[in-house]
Write the structure tokens for this entry.
Amino acid sequence: MRFAKRYIAPFYQYEYNNVLATDSCYWISGWGTDTIKPNHWTAIVAKFDLNGNLLLKKELRANRLDFGWPEGIYYHSNKIYTLYLQPYDSAKLVTYDILMDSLYVLRSFGPMEDSQYLFSPYLFLNSQGEIFVTWSSNINSGKNFKMEVYLIKLDSLGNELLNKRITFNNRWFILRGIKESKDSNIIIHGLLSLEYYQKNNDESKRDYILVLNNKGDSLTSITYRYSMNAGISDLLILEDESYICATSILSHKGSITGLPAIIRMDTRGRLKWSIIPDSAFLSYYWFTDKSNMLKLEKVNGSNYTSMGNMELKDLDNPNIGSGNVRIVMLNFDTLGKVHWQRIYSMDSASNLFHAFDFKRTSDGGYIICGSGDSITSNVALIDAGILIKTDSFGCIIPDCHKLVNVDDVVKGKHKAFEMYPNPIAGNRFYVLSRISLAENYHIQFINMMGQLVHSTSIQAQAGMQYILSRPANILSGEYVIQIVGKEFIQSEKIIFE
């Protein structure tokens, strides 16, 4: 089963931030801002069948700004766990009891002391149901500056087993995640920097790993040595104890820009190899989730897949970014060889269509969750939740890996684009670019009387799978879709049911 669906709710902003894949369903945790009471933020846990149909949605709303961005989603003993940031001084561990059909706050953390912020809390559950919660916080005391990392371990009922603080003097440490190794060590990863940003100081921002034992005592730390980075968003530990890391490589050119990247480094922080997605641009979005490799999944002992977001180059001026943010997925091996790359794009008013999380599914494919804006019936621009299900090769459209030569397209030997499905029964269809040439293309919908009824444009490139909504003025019937480029025009008869 392959699909791409947008889920609109009565919120100004609506995001699916974390996804959990089981054999029978998908669970997500997300959040929304209330349209009735603006700035009242709502926690959302939802369940979908394997076709992406919504089965259940639970919402939890308390006071203003209570439930910000969630991080992590886990299942244990018929309960779903997720962690919400309450901007900006506390966090809430939210639990959905499946048997009781109840969504509630299991445990609150904070508020922080005066002049302290709680930065990006993270959650991890191990196979025994033990809960790890961690966050970083700043401490300003006169001329002294400190960052503290809080590490709290709970049992499945919320009882505290460990409470630890790790201090970083005169350095920023921004947390990006937490994991447990096979030998039960705790691995915290993120961004380590100096207290004050220095424009030409390459030490200012570094990928950083801190390894602790199960009592919270520091065992070792690893600092990546070879470039400025935005912080490790996710990592996997290989058999030789080296690390594969999802990150963004930073550059100073008047201001800081970043490229989404995957790196492999040894236990001393030395680079083995790095991967940067094709067509990625040095983006000003490096400090958000919009131009980073974000997540990693292990396929087998030597094969891995990573998902992230990237800004495309501007085709008219390659020295600037286009502002178009797209989802990218890469499959690679332990030697850094890329087997395939997929790019996903969705029609979006502001071009900010991006993913937050993905998981491998029981059929070997992938489920991606994210957010993209949408125009509602009353022409209001809102953010919508996104789910995308692909096969094991990252394809929404079958055989999406098969590319063709532009010269063969001009000679009429092959099609440059493929529409899928045809006929179109629902409100979503797909356009696959099979050519390696990156270019802006106009898409025109023409009825059987030769009248232009709708037009749009896409920035296509090799293997991009463009997800389109059925235009509101397209009625049931036959149409001709023309895709117009600089070197050719492709015409395709398509049926909307």
